[in-house]
Specification:
Structural class: alpha/beta
Number of helices: 13
CATH class of the largest domain: Alpha Beta
Shape: elongated
Number of strands: 14
Radius of gyration: 21 Å
CATH superfamily of the largest domain: Methylesterase CheB, C-terminal domain
Helix content: 25-40%
Largest sheet: 7 strands, parallel
CATH topology of the largest domain: Rossmann fold
Strand content: 15-25%
Distance between the termini: 50 Å
Strand order of the largest sheet: 8-9-7-6-12-13-14
Length: about 350
């Protein structure tokens, strides 16, 4: 197999050299370019099309966030691994990087005096690059707009009362989820469960950030908690989030079961267990993200009689996840990201009325 082609962007000449040597010592990796600035990094990505990028947040001309924003506009499918001392100084900065489309992060190790000690990160850096590369999905064929190519699923005229909303997202999800969740009112009558692909250690911070934007109570999921109306729970990083029914009560279960779709947490796990716990009372929402996590879970929701709506892929940072659901013929509706929150509210409220009719 050809080695994984890597671009390293770092403002330090010493760091660029040491990182290149570390990665080059593994026969499965090849550093095809190094870049001392953000602008040069973007140029080299355009010219060389690397398969993974290693990015320091501290660059002399552009900050790491600006580089990420430009990368996600131009190269939305490129895995970007943050490797920076700044991830240690502030979790919020790392959270911002993940929100703007970084795939994962590793803190650049330093000595007690603050001097970089990069060799200490060799094994985790190599392992993380290989993991990110393994997640890359083939580029979908270009074609006409999705809504013209894929017929929406049709369900019964009347949907049973919605008892739970489950949401799945990946690349680009944190910022877009903030818009969706902030649109839900304080008296929202059902619980909401979210699986957002995010590294361990940051889902709690993500839940806390969402909590400041919403009148609802938003927390990182805790195994054994009973779910109630008006609660929002976020799957913890590196743990699957599942639902278990015990008579009239539904509880959370978090576990470190096998990866699904190379992910943990996986959207499929949440959707599949929600369908078992709530049957036709599930509203599943698939948002921006790479790969097809959530598609099999949507099959389970659909088979149980629930409803599936997807974010319009044209409004996604990466549209692969909702596109996979559309291609499988499982989506009942395609919704612009700006309208997702209001549409969720509309659908839930309509099913509370005995006169409701699905539309």
């Amino acid at each position: 197999m050809a080695p994984i082609r890597i671009l390293v962007a770092d403002g330090s000449a010493v760091a660029r050299r040491e990182i290149s040597q570390m990665l080059g010592s593994d026969l499965e990796l090849e550093v095809v370019a190094i870049a001392p600035t953000g602008h040069l990094a973007l140029e080299k990505v355009e010219q060389l099309r690397p398969e993974v990028m290693v990015l320091d947040l501290a660059l002399p001309d552009m900050n790491g966030m600006d580089v990420l924003k430009a990368l996600r506009r131009q190269f939305p499918r490129l895995p970007v691994l943050i490797f920076s001392t700044l991830t240690e100084s502030t979790g919020n900065l790392t959270m911002d990087a993940l929100a703007h489309g970084a795939s994962d992060y590793i803190t650049k190790p330093t000595t007690a005096g603050g001097v970089p000690f990069l060799e200490q990160a060799r094994e985790p850096l190599i392992a993380k690059i290989k993991e990110l590369h393994s997640r890359i999905q083939p580029e979908p064929p270009s074609a006409s707009p999705l809504r013209k190519r894929h017929e929406l699923a049709k369900g019964p005229a009347r949907q049973p009362r919605i008892g739970v909303v489950v949401v799945g997202a990946s690349t680009g999800g944190p910022n877009m989820l903030a818009d969706v969740i902030s649109a839900l009112p304080a008296d929202f009558p059902v619980p909401v469960l979210i699986t957002q692909h995010m590294p361990a250690g940051f889902t709690k911070l993500f839940a806390e950030r969402l909590d400041t934007l919403s009148p609802l109570r938003i927390r990182e999921a805790v195994s054994g908690e009973q779910i109630r109306a008006g609660q929002v729970w976020v799957a913890p990083g590196d743990y699957h989030l599942a639902l278990i029914r015990e008579g009239p009560v539904v509880k959370l279960l978090t576990h470190r079961g096998p990866l699904e779709n190379s992910c943990r947490p996986a959207v499929d796990v949440l959707f599949r267990t929600a369908a078992l716990a709530y049957g036709a009372g599930v509203l599943a929402v698939v948002m921006t993200g790479m790969g097809q996590d959530g598609m099999k879970g949507c099959q389970a929701v659909s088979q149980a009689g629930g409803r599936v709506i997807v974010q319009d892929p044209e409004t996604c940072i990466v549209g692969s996840m909702p596109q996979a659901v559309l291609q499988a013929g499982l989506a009942h509706q395609v919704v612009h990201v700006k309208n997702l929150g209001p549409e969720i509210v509309r659908r839930v409220i309509r099913t509370l009325s005995p006169q409701q009719a699905e539309s």
